[in-house]
Amino acid sequence: MAVVQAERTTADAPTAPTKPVGDRRGRPLWVRLLPYLLVAPTLLGTAYLLVYPMVRNLLISFQKFGIGQLIRGGAEFVGIDNYREIFTDDKFWSVVGRTFVFTAINVGLIMVLSTLVALLINALDRWMRLTVMGGLVLAWAIPVLAATTVFQWLFQSQLGVVNWALVQLGFEQFDGHAWFADGRSTFAIIVVLIVWQSVPFAALTLYAAMTTVPRELYESAQIDGAGPVKIFRLITFPILRPMFGLILCLEVIWVFKSFVQIWVISQGGPGDATLTLPVYAYQIAQSLNRYDLGAAISVVTVVLLTLVLLAYFRQMFKEEGEL
Amino acid sequence: MRTRLHRRVLLNLLGLGVFAFSVFPVYWMVLTAFKPTKDIQAETPSFLPVHVTFSHFSTAVHADGFWLFWRNSAFVAVTGVLLALVVACLAAFAVARMKWKGRQAFILMVFVAQMTPWEALLIPMYVIARDTDMLDKLPTLTLIYFMMTLPFTIVTLRGFLNAIPAELEEAGQVDGCNQFQAFRRIVFPLLAPGLLSTSLFGFITAWNEFAFANLLIIKEQDQRTLPVWLSSFSNTFGTDWGATMAAATLFMLPVLLIFLVLQGRVTTGVAAGAVKG
Amino acid sequence: MSRHALATAAVAALSLTAIAACGSSDGGSDAAPGPTTIDVWLMKGSVSDDFLKRFTDDFAAKHTDVKLNVQIQEWNGIGPKIIGALASKDAPDVIEVGNTQVPQYSASGGVVDLTDKLADLKGDDWIEGLAGPGNYEGKQYGIPYYAANRVVVYRKDLFQAAGITTPPKTREEWLAATAKLNTGGNQGIYLPGQNFYVLAGFIWDEGGDLAVKDGDSWKGALSTPEALKGIEFYKQIQALGKGPKDSDEAKPTQTDVFAQGKVAQMIAVPGAAELIAQANPALKDKLGFFPIPGKAADKPGAVFTGGSDLIIPEASDAHDAAYTFIKELAGEQWQVDLAKSMKYVPNRTSLASQVGADEGTQAMAAGAANGQATPNSPNWAAVEAKNPIKEYLTKVLTGGDPAAAAKAADAIITDALNSGK
């Protein structure tokens, strides 16, 4: 299995910073222009396929744009009316708050669990290790939509496997228990689903990174009488800090943007119990056909997410600068 | 000695627990696909394949358009990902191997591009496609999937490149190759597995995408993709769970196969990239 | 899940083999002489293969100047897709639209006004549940296509075993019979907690409604005393079985549950019987139908009229040819044929007598006499998309205070219906 190669490759990977090729002085013009030519396709693609639609989106957020305007055209400019409408809506702010709580809970769980799983894999024998990693890969490969359907199904109130199992274990009160009737349990099920889907990537990546930590460091620490917690705190974590940073950043982005899971399971309900920003934006845009409000909400979403990750970006910027 | 044995047993039990927890939903999906319809909604669920039937799979495979949509999906996913790979490869090389003004800003841009809330771009994308006569065309989806996967591809490829010592190329250059020849002959072979595995992520994204495929392919039914078909499927059979799960299993199969072959390298790339910062 | 569970479940059995309607269309772009090709979108389950073939053959013979290209669309994700089609430059020429969704398209300005064809199509005879939603601000955009409504599907053998000889005709009889059936591992009735069209029927029986129009604005009406009586009854009857309180009839598919053989009754369109028989052939001859009982024996319970309208997009480039098609499909000959072969209610009340009926169709027709539609607002589709009524049902059935929950649901409905004004 390929995972074996993973360990080796990673272990072999040097960690010394890469030295830029070429010397600054006396380079011909085309050499100096080369990097710009190389990133040009990316920039062009991004400009047309991302920035341009974003600008259109921004434009829509300043217009009155509903189904009529989409069909007939002639959207009229309304200034910041849409933004005023969402900002003065208490519901919007509670959605923002919930999105942050949702992201924090999920990402917290993902980071802790994936670290534990990675440490566990690291400590296992070869065969058990491959088994666990194989299981994680399966969970990772299943299409989001299929996984969501299966989860929904496991928690069905009638004929659902979870209720059946709980009743078998003696919890009679779960016979026909309606999980999706209650906001908190729906929220919890979605958290379980997202964590279940996210841990494999994070855990496998962390494990791959752990294999790059030289064994000697652990051994000498053990000789010095350090316990596992101390070893993690003093050796593993500091070495893997950039890795934790990257995974944290990616998971924050991915969880914050989670849409399919919530939409399929609860559409933001019951009540507003699982209504997060992307779901709210979609609901308003596609259900109410208020494309203008949906656009405004998505603009705010991007701004908020950028603010959340600002610290990480600044850190990255600093480190890139040192290269 | 005893404590060590205890520790081993405990660790293995934990490992089994993690395995069971991660596999069960997948197992349940595949199991359901093999169960006769009558057993699927049974009062007492059976956890082992007692009565195995292939009828759901045959229903799914013989459903109208399965192979056509399969081809369409493969086309948009593969072309989108290939395009992303080529473009990302160039950009990643510039970022990992060269020093230039604006490099930091470029990296920042790539990260910000990752945060795009794609659901929000449905309407602007539709308007743009309509006004440029790009509705009902598979290449439109190719372009969108290209853009969806490009940022992550650049980030990961950069990681892979960083993991390959620049000294190798320099050595090549000393031997008379120019920078590109050195890249092609020395770095590229080393990078190939990385390219393959990076493409997997893009492939999953493109393979699963529903909203754009549903909205931008309007009139030409022959241009639909598998996820659209999959969703229609549950209606075709009045939510026939067995057939739906069989379809989902078939749907997941190619991804799983590529995954099993390449999985390790994906994490390696990200890991290498991250350790580098 | 919107009203389509109805149409879909009704005829999934009849259309198990999906209709091959693919094939590249050349749009309607041929302005040159020769036949005009029109693209028609029908929804999954609205016609069977057989019916479609008979219809297209006949159409081709009668109208040599129009070539038909029928595509079958899926209900899932159809909303954005129809909007996308209406807004495109090259739209299909005729689209079938669910009757609860037609107002939003009519209001959008993307649909051809067909008011002047009313007489030609004998519009004064249309059934209200289809014609009403197709009419927006006095203009007719949607042309009634077909309708169907719910009845009670029951197990004759279980009724007999319980000593119930005639199907119940009033709510009291119904409750009594259902309670009697709800023993020995059998469910008296399988009614999922979120079947809000059934609730709507109970509310209409009491004289209430889901929402009422007050001048220019809408108001959710679930907290009126009439509506509260409606949910009270829903709660009573729902308790006589093990229907999930947090789910609708699609999750799990209620016909599958019924097919397990432990359910005495369920509320569905008559076509559901085919699905049950297919999943469990042993039940084939044991199924019966009766109209949902009303408050008094002489009047069956009110039911939601489900069904579809046909519209012509403004963006279509063959309005006349499209109308030719609509006139055929909505006309007498094919309406009677469709109603017979698909077990539907035809679009004109006067045609009902021509549809010689089996037991299921008869029960449906009896109920259809008291058929009603959802509030006629362009925003009603938005209410159904994130359905506050379903959540309201779940809250009440799991022990919540009906008055408070109704008030909360009303606020959401009011908000959604008045949004964008």
From TrEMBL, chain A:
<keyword id="KW-0812">Transmembrane</keyword>
<dbReference type="GO" id="GO:0055085">
    <property type="term" value="P:transmembrane transport"/>
</dbReference>
<feature type="transmembrane region" description="Helical">
    <location>
        <begin position="100"/>
        <end position="124"/>
    </location>
</feature>
<keyword id="KW-0472">Membrane</keyword>
<keyword id="KW-1133">Transmembrane helix</keyword>
<keyword id="KW-0813">Transport</keyword>
<feature type="compositionally biased region" description="Low complexity">
    <location>
        <begin position="11"/>
        <end position="20"/>
    </location>
</feature>
<feature type="domain" description="ABC transmembrane type-1">
    <location>
        <begin position="96"/>
        <end position="312"/>
    </location>
</feature>
<feature type="transmembrane region" description="Helical">
    <location>
        <begin position="33"/>
        <end position="55"/>
    </location>
</feature>
<dbReference type="Pfam" id="PF00528">
    <property type="entry name" value="BPD_transp_1"/>
</dbReference>
<protein>
    <submittedName>
        <fullName>N,N'-diacetylchitobiose transport system permease protein</fullName>
    </submittedName>
</protein>
<keyword id="KW-1003">Cell membrane</keyword>
<dbReference type="InterPro" id="IPR035906">
    <property type="entry name" value="MetI-like_sf"/>
</dbReference>
<feature type="transmembrane region" description="Helical">
    <location>
        <begin position="136"/>
        <end position="155"/>
    </location>
</feature>
<feature type="transmembrane region" description="Helical">
    <location>
        <begin position="231"/>
        <end position="256"/>
    </location>
</feature>
From TrEMBL, chain B:
<feature type="transmembrane region" description="Helical">
    <location>
        <begin position="9"/>
        <end position="30"/>
    </location>
</feature>
<dbReference type="InterPro" id="IPR000515">
    <property type="entry name" value="MetI-like"/>
</dbReference>
<keyword id="KW-0813">Transport</keyword>
<feature type="domain" description="ABC transmembrane type-1">
    <location>
        <begin position="70"/>
        <end position="262"/>
    </location>
</feature>
<dbReference type="InterPro" id="IPR050901">
    <property type="entry name" value="BP-dep_ABC_trans_perm"/>
</dbReference>
<dbReference type="GO" id="GO:0005886">
    <property type="term" value="C:plasma membrane"/>
</dbReference>
<dbReference type="Pfam" id="PF00528">
    <property type="entry name" value="BPD_transp_1"/>
</dbReference>
<comment type="similarity">
    <text>Belongs to the binding-protein-dependent transport system permease family.</text>
</comment>
<feature type="transmembrane region" description="Helical">
    <location>
        <begin position="141"/>
        <end position="161"/>
    </location>
</feature>
<feature type="transmembrane region" description="Helical">
    <location>
        <begin position="186"/>
        <end position="207"/>
    </location>
</feature>
<keyword id="KW-0472">Membrane</keyword>
<feature type="transmembrane region" description="Helical">
    <location>
        <begin position="106"/>
        <end position="129"/>
    </location>
</feature>
<feature type="transmembrane region" description="Helical">
    <location>
        <begin position="241"/>
        <end position="262"/>
    </location>
</feature>
<keyword id="KW-1003">Cell membrane</keyword>
<dbReference type="GO" id="GO:0055085">
    <property type="term" value="P:transmembrane transport"/>
</dbReference>
TrEMBL record, chain C:
<dbReference type="GO" id="GO:0055052">
    <property type="term" value="C:ATP-binding cassette (ABC) transporter complex, substrate-binding subunit-containing"/>
</dbReference>
<dbReference type="InterPro" id="IPR006059">
    <property type="entry name" value="SBP"/>
</dbReference>
<dbReference type="Pfam" id="PF01547">
    <property type="entry name" value="SBP_bac_1"/>
</dbReference>
<feature type="signal peptide">
    <location>
        <begin position="1"/>
        <end position="20"/>
    </location>
</feature>
<protein>
    <submittedName>
        <fullName>N,N'-diacetylchitobiose transport system substrate-binding protein</fullName>
    </submittedName>
</protein>
<keyword id="KW-0732">Signal</keyword>
<comment type="similarity">
    <text>Belongs to the bacterial solute-binding protein 1 family.</text>
</comment>
<dbReference type="GO" id="GO:1901982">
    <property type="term" value="F:maltose binding"/>
</dbReference>
<keyword id="KW-0813">Transport</keyword>
<dbReference type="GO" id="GO:0015768">
    <property type="term" value="P:maltose transport"/>
</dbReference>
<dbReference type="GO" id="GO:0042956">
    <property type="term" value="P:maltodextrin transmembrane transport"/>
</dbReference>
